[in-house]
Amino acid sequence: MFPHHREREQPIFSTRAHVFQIDPATKRNWIPASKHAVTVSFFYDANRNVYRIISVGGTKAIINCTITPSMTFTKTSQKFGQWADSRANTVYGLGFATEQQLHQFSEKFKEVKDAARLAREKSQDKELANTALSIAAPQDLSDELQSPPVMCVNGPEDKLFRSQSADITLSSEKERIKKMLSEGSICEMNLEAELFTLQDSNVKLVAALHEANANVEQWKKQLAAYQEETERLRDQVAELEAHGGQGPSDLLKDELTQSLEELESLLKAKDEEIHILQSKKTEYHVMEREREEALHRLQEMEMRNSDLERRIQNTEQNLSNSLEERDRMDNEIQRAIEILDIKIFDLNDLRQSLVKLIDK
Fold first, then answer.
1. Contact at 8 Å (CB) between 240 and 206?
2. d(CA 326, CA 270)
3. Structure pTM?
4. Is the terminal CB of the chain with fewer CB neighbours within 10 Å at N or C?
5. Mean pLDDT, to the nearest integer, of 192-201?
6. How far is CA 197 from CA 58, 183, 203, in A?
7. How does DSSP assign 184-241, residue by residue?
8. What kind and span of H or E run contains 133?
9. Is the per-residue pLDDT at 137 higher than 70?
10. What pLDDT score was predicted for residue 170?
11. Mean pLDDT rounded to a whole number for the chain
């Protein structure tokens, strides 16, 4: 008698890709819609029977596209594909990390487009059938309009009023649950994007750290060689100074002194570079700690999402029980109305019989 509660929009496929939009001025160049790879998902709305592609970057939706049967996803390279959205008057492009991810997205796009086509055909067939029924049955409608109104007493009318109030309460409860679920999904997607960003930064920092450690080891070997060379030159200078005029000329001594100063300045520069690399190690530890904190927040959000799912299931069960109870009450009211109609009919027959007896 009453419609069941509407189901929320469900994700059916997700992947990660770099999102681009065509330049509206030139219609040739691509404009990045996100700085990093983001989550791109297919969603199905069971209430409206439509499919959408949604991608959230930060706090805003960078893709919100309703799939129609006329759309086509085209692979333009091994890791890039695009499709046009006439409603948004734009063309979306997706860059994937691997060719396999592009193939999976293309197959899912084709599957969803076929499903959207079937849904549109069913909807059109249903509209045609409803139109035919409305044209073919005007007499039935007129008969229904001419039928006498159903009589009610205070008891059933009061129950019907309470049933309508329950409808309003259940509708507001369903809207509140949908809002809670959408907020939880957006927070989860934001934390997931932040986690992937931190993981990318972590990989880059680890590679830079390994390269810096290799350079440090090489520079340490060069530093040791320079120190040995410096000690040797110092010994030669001291030996020359001890022998006085018996050694090389003063010009050679100046050259050795200049070489010694250059080596000392080079050693000082290498020490500064080593100090800079050690400071980068500290930055890497800070990033590692931030990544762990993000993982912890993501776990907390997953626990919160699970709790929301459990509460929603309980609420849906309560709604189902309430609907069943309401249907049962409606059936009882209908039976009471039928019994009252029968009693009224019997009383009317009895009154007519009494009138006939009085007339005799």
1. no
2. 83
3. 0.38
4. C
5. 62
6. 12, 21, 10
7. HHHHHHHHHHHHHHHHHHHHHHHHHHHHHHHHHHHHHHHHHHHHHHHHHHHHHHHHHH
8. helix 99-136
9. no
10. 61
11. 78
